[in-house]
Amino acid sequence: MINVTLTFNEITATISSNEHGMFDLNEVHSHWLSGIEAKRPNRWVRTAVARDLMCTKNAQTPKLASEQKLLSLDNGGSRSTKTYVADQDALISYAMWADKQFHRKVLKAFRQLANNDAAGAMKTAQSAMTVEAREKLRVDSKSFSDAISKAQDNEQLSASHGFVHVRNLAAKAVTGFGTVAAFRQRHGGLTPREYYAANDDWAKLMELGNAEAKIEALLQAGMDYQGIKGLLAA
Question: Does the pLDDT value for residue 34 go beyond 60?
Answer without folding.
Answer: yes
